[in-house]
UniProtKB/TrEMBL annotation:
This is UPF0729 protein C18orf32 homolog. Pfam families: DUF4512 (PF14975). The gene is CUNH18orf32. GO terms for cellular component: endoplasmic reticulum; lipid droplet. Residues 43-76 are annotated as: Disordered. InterPro entries: UPF0729_C18orf32-like.
Amino acid sequence: MVCIPCIVIPVLLWVYKKFLEPYIYPLISPFVSRMWPRKAVQESSDKNKGNMNCKVADMNGLPTEGATEISDKKKD
C-alpha cells in the first residue's frame, strides 16, 4: 500500500508544472533574477591551471613514498 503523500505530492507537482507555472513564473522571475544574478563564466589566462601534480596513493587513499608493494592475500 502506498502512503498518501507519495501519491499526492507528485500529483500536485505535476499540476503546478503543467498548469500553474506558465502563469506564475513570469510574475516571480524578476524577483528571482535580482536575488540570484547570473555571472558570466570567465576563462583564466593561467596556462598551468589544468596541470596537477598527482602522487602515488595506496588503497586507503593515503599518500605513500617510494615503490608500492602489492601483497597477495591468499597465502597458504
